[in-house]
Amino acid sequence: MSARKIAQWHDAGIIDAATRDRLLAYEADHARPLALWAVWGIGALTIGLGFVSVVAANWEDIPGLVRLAVHLALIAGLLGLVFLREDRLAARSPWTVEALAFTAAALGLTFFGHLGQVYQTSSPLWQPLAAWLALFAPLLLLTGRSWPTALAVVGGAVWTAWEYAGAMTDHGGLRDPGPMWLTWIGAVVALPAAFAPGAGWLRARTLRPDFWRRMEQLALAYAVGLASLACAVASAGELDGSGPRDGGTAGFACGLVVALAGLAHFAARPGISGRMAAAIIAGAGVTIALAVLTDDFTVPAALLFLALWAGIAAAALAAQWRGVFQLAVGVIALRLIVLSFELAADLLTSGFGLILSGLMILGVAWIAVRFSRRFAPREEGAA
Amino acid sequence: MRAARLAAAVLPVLGLAAMWLQSDRTFRTGTEWNVPIEGYDPRDYLRGHYVEFSYDWPGMPESDIAPSALCLEGEAPTLARVTAVPADEPCEDHWVRSDSSGVYGWDGLNRGRLYIGQDRAALLEKELRNRDQRGIVTIRQREDGSFTPVAIRFRPLNPSESAERDALDAQQAEDLRPPPAIMSQ
User: Fold this and answer.
1) What is the ipTM score, two decimals?
2) Rounded Cα gap, residues B150 and B21, in angstroms
3) A interface mutation test: which of B1, B10, B16 has the most A CBs within 10 A?
4) Nearest C-alpha in A relative to B122
5) What is the chain B residue with the closest CA to A118?
6) Predicted confidence (pLDDT) per residue in A259-308, tens digit
7) Alpha-carbon gap, residue A364 to A17, rounded angstroms
8) CB-based contacts of A161: which residues, under 8 Å, 6+ apart?
9) How confident is the model at residue A242 (pLDDT cuts 50, 70, 90)?
10) Contact A119/B at CB under 8 A
11) How far apart are CA B14 and CA B22, in angstroms?
């Protein structure tokens, strides 16, 4: 609300002078300089990107030692600033701390590439990723305020897990990995979902509930994404073999670990919202395990996918999450449309068939929009 | 809580510094050898800012099976010849092995890469296309059989190498001749 509007209301006689002054004082105290924050964010991002390309260009005019020393000094400086000034900076704007911690972590990740260039070392990607996660996750978890740092932790864990699984199975080319090995790989891929119960437990017990809420949401999104991917791969008939994506044993193990994370979440966060989040994660785990059984059966795999998202829609109704409910309805509608093409691909070859499919898409979309409007919960709750 | 925050802030710096030290020490130890390289594919060997090349170990028979370890003979840095040995019983003096956790895995004795600056990458790409030159990579070989390429340079072909190349070209030209008239019908 701008001061100009408040002055206009006063001039029109809607509010008296005392109310005007109180409103102005309130607005001054609670101003959110969004534009300024956005400029800060864009500036930080640009500097980060610029630094990455300077490193990538591998400037040989500057000796490696000097480049690495400057790089490490930058990281140390940012970390020092975060440690010494965290409370003061956070009091002014939590985003400052968030940007500092995130930039330090990003610089840390590029340091590994920088080392590789200067010393000609080359190792599989999961090794530097795992080292980065071990070194920077404590910092991010202790200072994170919002979604960028949460995304860095969960995203870093997911990336590490998949790189590890890919490298350990020779990117699907490994012949005859034992069942023990596949169980291990499947469990590793599922591990990032285990952030959910931990974050759910900490939400009520910390000064940074927003950060832990984002962590929980991202871990939940990963579990649902994994389950959806398993269904999609099963419907294409690729869920057997030895890769991390396409392994029966690995799929079972992965589903089991995700389901266990869901069960732990029940205990970690009581309340309707927590119970529904737990139900979604546990359901995603069960879906992953069941997807193995539906491999190469188009309709059962699609039904499993629809059941997962119908469950998510039901949970969203129970917990009053409007956005999640609408998303679930949209995903179900999309899957129905894709399914119709899978089952009747020959429709697309004739003009009449195309008209029919177009009408059907419009019909499904119309029903989805009506359904969503009619039943979506009113207010936006927190997932 | 303050101690935990201090630890979280200090850990990344210490960890990165330790990795730096470790990389630096590994990079500096070892014996330097000059290994001829070959087989660069102009479409493929310059990805980003590194050169990718195939080693042309002197004295290695042409074979599809990648050796897991090689014995290096000669007076460093001049490599006289190599012999394939099993990785679990390497020779006394100087040896290299493929690193199964490296980017090239078991193929690490066949292929290698060298990171270079982007200006030099463009120059090298031109040089590598010049067939009158021979690429030489200097590797630093350590006691445990691990090795790191540290430099790349070029020298003109010596007479025997250019004769070998001309013979190869002549053979390829022969292979590409059109078939006799009777067979093309």
Assistant:
1) 0.73
2) 17
3) B16
4) A57
5) B115
6) 999 999 999 988 899 999 999 999 999 999 998 888 778 888 899 999 99
7) 55
8) A188, A189, A191, A192
9) very low
10) yes
11) 12
